[in-house]
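Hi support team,

I submitted a single chain yesterday and got back a structure, but I'm not sure I'm reading the token output correctly. Could someone confirm the output below corresponds to the sequence I sent? I've pasted both exactly as they appear in my results page.

Thanks,
R.
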Amino acid sequence: MERLRKLAKQWDISLSDLQLRQFQTYYDMLVETNKVMNLTTVTDLSEVITRHFLDSIALSQIVPEIRDHNYHLLDLGTGAGFPGLPLKIVFPDLSVTLMDSLNKRIHFLERVVIELGLSDISCVHGRAEESARQEAYRQKYDLCVSRAVANLSVLCEYCLPFVKTGGFMIAYKSAEIEEEAAQAEKAIHLLGGRLKTIRKLEIPDTGIVRSFVWIEKVKSTPKTYPRKAGTAKKDPL
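Hi R., thanks for writing in. Yes, this is the structure output for that exact sequence:
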């Protein structure tokens, strides 16, 4: 975990002893639960530090304001808690919702949240297509992030309905994303968004380049979106 502290320092992030203990506990619970539940294919500590923990908090290099703004942040399709949980550990003032369609993952995350002693973070079981139509979640978030593996057009239909006008979504994508982003322009516009920028960042000690697709929410998402479950994947906008 001292390696995590050292690498984070390259991004001007100072991790306390408490935060390092929280990351260690998170890692221990992740590896132990992964024996009985498919949470991640990456279990080696050194790789988890770079490919999950650092990759998650890399958002702070794209949106520096996340350090001192009390954003209401939704991590959609959070899986094992990435990127939302590492972001909450490092920036405790964030109000975080972790949402996933698999209930057993949510139960795991609830246990982690309790064990780490985190507050102002909720774990929600739900599909994007259904949850985004509920008043409690629709257009309520300043920021929606996702590392979920999905085509950008599909991901926008999942994410943008949750974002309030004036907020934004950021998709964590692999390095070569320009063509996919161009193909998603129609969907972005239909859903009330505007592509602001694509930023690329190398994760320290890995050689891995991460692309961050930043989409602003400029107007309300039409009530017809998201479409019913499964439609976005079968027939992308």
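A quick pointer for reading it: The domain at 2-220 is CATH 3.40.50.150 (Rossmann fold). Let us know if anything else looks off.

Best,
Support desk
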